[in-house]
Write a structure and sequence with these properties.
Blueprint lengths: L5 E9 L8 E7 L6 H11 L4 E6 L5 E6 L4 E2 L3 H13 L7 E6 L2 E8 L2 E7 L4 E2 L4 H7 L5 E4 L3 E5 L3 H6 L4 H5 L5 E7 L5 E7 L4 E4 L6 H12 L3 E6 L5 E8 L2 E6 L1 E10 L1
């Protein structure tokens, strides 16, 4: 165990079956909460899309929080998967499932062979009129625009449209939302996406578990199916399996450890 003034850190590639793919997240197990300013400073120093911190106890097995390099967020899928992988693989969690208390309520992660299934609340989305700034930032005319709790969901015509998108991140940062999810039907999966969060300090997130709580209800209704496959078209890329469970969404994928070490604080 780390000595005084040290905390453990693991860097884990989530939604990936091999290193250098998926979405890297840092995970820091803690005995108790450090000051928020210290947590934010660690996340900024890590400079990954999210750093997850957890402590034991509370109403769940662990209390879990997530920080981007700039802000604390209410929900993060890939860093939750990474935290569960850390507990199962490195810290000897003895049960098949882990419950996390969070800003988004109780979250459950279940180990299923080489994958982990996240049980998350489904987002509530509604069709909206696209702000002019959003269309200008994306440089394209959407098929449809919806709004979830925090993010715009922008639907394009094809996978190629999503892959070729080159948004103006400066303009996108000025759109009043946490982030922008861009999606379209997939050629080899049910749907594809890319996710942009410049206002939260993450220009493009490699694989975004929480965004699939927004996309899965949309595509489940549009395609009239409850079980869907998804691919995020970032440079690192990632594959996910998504299932509608009433008012919740199951999101499944693997993870691999890239690094473990100590932070001096």
């Amino acid at each position: 165990m780390p000595g005084p003034g040290k905390i453990p850190i693991y860097q884990i590639d989530a939604f990936a079956s091999q290193r250098f793919r998926g979405n890297p997240a840092a995970v820091c197990p803690l005995p108790s909460w450090l000051p928020d300013a210290t947590l934010q400073a660690i996340a900024a120093e890590n400079n990954l899309s999210e750093t997850a911190f957890f402590i034991p106890g509370g109403e769940a097995d662990y209390e879990l929080r997530w920080f981007t390099p700039a802000i604390e967020v209410d929900l993060c899928g890939h860093a939750t998967l990474a935290a569960a992988h850390c507990l199962f693989t490195h810290l000897g969690h003895p049960h098949k499932s882990i419950t996390f208390g969070s800003r988004s309520g109780l979250l459950t992660v279940t180990r299923e062979g080489e994958e982990y299934m996240l049980d998350f609340p489904a987002d509530n989305i509604e069709t909206v009129v696209a702000p002019r700034a959003l269309k200008e930032a994306l440089g394209t005319e959407p098929v449809e625009v919806l709004m979830g709790r925090d993010d715009f969901l922008v639907v394009l015509e094809s996978e190629a449209d999503v892959a070729q998108l080159a948004p103006d991140l400066r303009l996108l940062k000025e759109v009043r939302c946490r982030g922008v999810i861009v999606t379209a039907p997939g050629s080899t999966t049910d749907f594809v996406s890319r996710c942009f969060y410049p206002a939260a300090g993450v220009d493009e997130d490699p694989v975004t578990g929480s965004a699939h709580t927004t996309m899965t209800p949309y595509w489940a209704e549009r395609l009239s199916k409850q079980e869907l496959t998804a691919r995020q078209l970032s440079k690192r890329g990632g594959h996910l399996r998504c299932t509608m469970l009433g008012e919740r969404v199951a999101i499944s994928g693997p993870a691999v450890t890239y690094m473990e070490g100590e932070i001096f604080i």
